């Protein structure tokens, strides 16, 4: 059983030209595939785009779920757009964590269970970071930022 929730969208740097929305990703699982059984991280859309690209690269012929579109010309309120995107990101992650092949990708685990940046995730996966994948997840869990007991 794995429950993943994308919630609490927050606009960062509101009113500036480089504003963006990030989302809280809450994961609760009893799956042996995951290092930590509960975690909570914040990610933005472009990090989801990176993750999907990496999963696609490593999954071979296994289809990777689609992300919600990146529409800059959305008709309707910003709140509506953010909510539709949140729902789409949640559906994406729900499908990803149900796929055994995608679940074996360590980038996915670092994305969901650490607050490492994309370059730090890449370095960690390639063995160039200061920690192993499991070490990075456990370090985040122990820091109590990840909500893990």
Short key terms for the protein model shown above:
alpha+beta; 3 strands; globular; 43% helix; membrane; single chain; three-stranded antiparallel β-sheet; 149 residues; PX Domain
Textual characterization of the structure:
- The protein is built from 6 helices and 3 strands.
- The protein has one domain: Phox-like domain (PX Domain, 2-Layer Sandwich), CATH 3.30.1520.10.
- The chain is α+β, with helices and mostly antiparallel strands and 149 residues long.
- It starts with a strand and ends in a 7-residue tail after the last helix.
- It has a 3-stranded antiparallel β-sheet.
Layout of helices and strands:
Elements: E1 2-12, E2 20-29, E3 38-44, H1 45-58, H2 78-97, H3 100-103, H4 106-113, H5 118-125, H6 133-142
Antiparallel strand pairs: 1-2, 2-3
Helix pairs in contact: 4-5, 4-6
């Amino acid at each position: 059983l794995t429950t993943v929730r994308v919630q609490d969208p927050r606009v960062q740097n509101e009113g500036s030209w480089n504003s963006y929305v990030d989302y809280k990703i809450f994961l609760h699982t009893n799956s042996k595939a995951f290092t930590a059984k509960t975690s909570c991280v914040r990610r933005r859309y472009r990090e989801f785009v990176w993750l999907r690209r990496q999963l696609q690269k490593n999954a071979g012929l296994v289809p990777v779920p689609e992300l919600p579109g990146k529409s800059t010309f959305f008709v309707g309120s910003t709140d509506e757009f953010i909510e539709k995107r949140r729902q789409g990101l949640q559906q994406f992650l729900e499908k990803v964590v149900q796929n055994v092949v995608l679940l074996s990708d360590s980038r996915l685990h670092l994305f969901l269970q650490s607050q490492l940046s994309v370059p730090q995730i890449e370095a960690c996966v390639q063995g160039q970071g200061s920690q192993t994948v499991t070490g990075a997840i456990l370090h985040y869990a122990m820091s109590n930022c990840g909500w893990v007991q």
